[in-house]
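Support request, please re-run this one:
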Amino acid sequence: MANANQARKDAIRDNVQRPSREVQYPIRDGKPVHTSEFFGENVFGQAQIAKALPKPAYAQFIRQKRGGRALDKSTADAIAHAVRIWAMDRGATHFTHWFQPQTGTTAEKHDAFLTMKSTHGPSGIDEISAIDAFSGTQLLQAEPDASSFPSGGMRTTFEARGYTVWDTTSPMFVQRGPHNTCVLYIPSVFISYNGDALDEKTVLLRSTEQVAKAALAVLALLEPVPVGLPPLTSMVYTTLGTEQEYFLVDRSLYVLRPDLKATGRTLLGALPAKHQQMEDHYFGHIPSRVLATMSETELELYKLGVPVKTRHNEVAPQQFELAPIFEETSLAIDHNLLTMDILAKIAHRNNLKVLFHEKPFNGINGSGKHCNWSLSTGSGDNLLDPSIKPETNYRFLLFLLATLDAVQHHGGLLRAGIASSSNEHRLGASEAPPAIISVFLGEQLTEVLDSIEESRPIKNFSVPNIKTIKLGGTALDVMIATLPEISRDLTDRNRTSPFAFTGNKFEFRAVGSKQSPSFPMALLNAAVASSLLKIVEALKTAAGDKPYPSDADKLKVIRQYIASTKNVRFEGDNYSDNWRNEASRRGLLNITSCPEAFDQILEESNSSMLCGLGVFSKSELQSRHHILMERYAKDLMLEANTLRTILAQQILPAAYEYRAALAASCAQQKEIGVSAGPELKTLNLTTPLVESLLDWIDKLDDAINTVHQHNQDPAKEARASAAYILPAMEGAREVADELEIILADKYFPLPKMSELLWF
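Re-run finished. Output below.
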């Protein structure tokens, strides 16, 4: 234990002495270059394609991008040639199709532009020469091994072929690596030989298409135009802003924690005396090494066209947040995954380790990925903007109610979308949205809906003191002359709500910081699309023989949906026991385990909706359920085996060594006639804990063996893992943490939470 403890002490010393890394932002003529001037310089987007292609070819590419036709070979070859020259001018030697398999991360396989060409020389002997080449075929598709990625039984080992296909809605980019290497990245989808979705993006793109079609159908009824004229709105898309939370710890301490390395979280560790109870970390001063990491990350992301906007300290020590400007959903998700990748690389350069696990430290706040979702027209008109008078903005009300209806009828499906072994530790805790999916609207919108339902005048929310706040406070009724009045939002915030309306968008707060937003956003898109289609039928029914619904018809449908979605609306404290009881009375699901959540994917109302819209096929849904169950069981099994190893090989030996030292001290005290009471008291405290920890190791072994009996059935294995492994791990941790508090510091082999959280 002495060597382990010394390594810990050395890491702490190195942590304090390590200087910050310095990176210079671009400078021209001795002056800083404005961010807007180098933003997106490493991106080959639509503007670059337009410049590279003849006008007819570019027009054909745009038609393909919008779903009008397939991309022909000559256009693909022209784009491939242009992007190769552009990328090689920036130092690229390789290209890769960048995709999102169902592993929770991204994947890439690098191929060189270099190829060999055979020519017939003057002597009649073939001459081999090296050339750089990149064809349209290579741009459009590649072939990774589909059997080596999770497929949920759709592919077997001997059925290995799969395809990555260029997603033309997301721009290509170059990214630099070590030793000044550079690679061209081609955002792609990943499908099987039979066309089944093996990735996260394919189903996201399908869902985006379906919600756009459904929204256009609603708008076609709400915005009538004369015969022969085009519709007022020809395109609708979803927008997304992802607030990414994460922890940073010193890398030299991280490498001494086997649990952090293997699982992404601490499987044991007593809460330090100071953690987040002083409430001084949130929005506090950013440590210099962290700010250096943030700044360098932002520099790289700006070059890649990622519009990162906000950075700040989060609630827990060493917890931080990075948030971007809103973008189209698919692009926003690509950028979020790229952000996570870049942040991890830059943290490594600064001798830090980024932790995206939702709950890396027990007893303090976990991390989420708050997904701010909305609907927008092609002209940038936000369909969830309530405007000045939401009570008469029927378009807004119908889209708002469609979202409420989606959560009302498919809340279990949304719960499945954010379920994982890591997020399970966060959901329902005292700092995160609970496992019950409900919607917060705020006082004004709640009053608007209630007044419409009850056919009464709305309470007056338009008086001046609602729009502005006088600095000085309502209690004093005074003004601070040097401070202006400030504008006041329509609604307050509710940090306990998993799905909250925040002005002109919904914030899905329950998404985990570690996961890709693709799956939960695909489920949300699909659910809203289904509800919009129901509203289309309701409007047509209300209109009867009329070609378009009247205002009275719209109001009738609005009242109908206000009444039917009332149960999912909740304005109070989502953490309270009263809400759990009330939610049960309302018929809302309270899903507390991952296996139970995963089953919602195959629940009839959810599966029929997803398959009916074409977002998933039946086989893809079965595959997804299989993969989620299998991954959950593997995660818990990995954690259980890691914890058992740490307890048996590090914690118990440290305790034995400490007990031996105490026993020797007792004997020495007795020999010289001095009371050994203090040492004996500590020894008597330590011994029962050691014995208890041995018992819990046996229980862990029993749990692991029980789960192994179901390893041929992922669903049974996942349920057994939840039933047996989780309780055994929690029990063992509780005892180990008590033991940590008693053990003399010089015997403890692992960096403690107090050392990981403060540097």
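The mean pLDDT is 90. The chain has three domains: 40-199, 207-268+278-442+491-616, 630-757.
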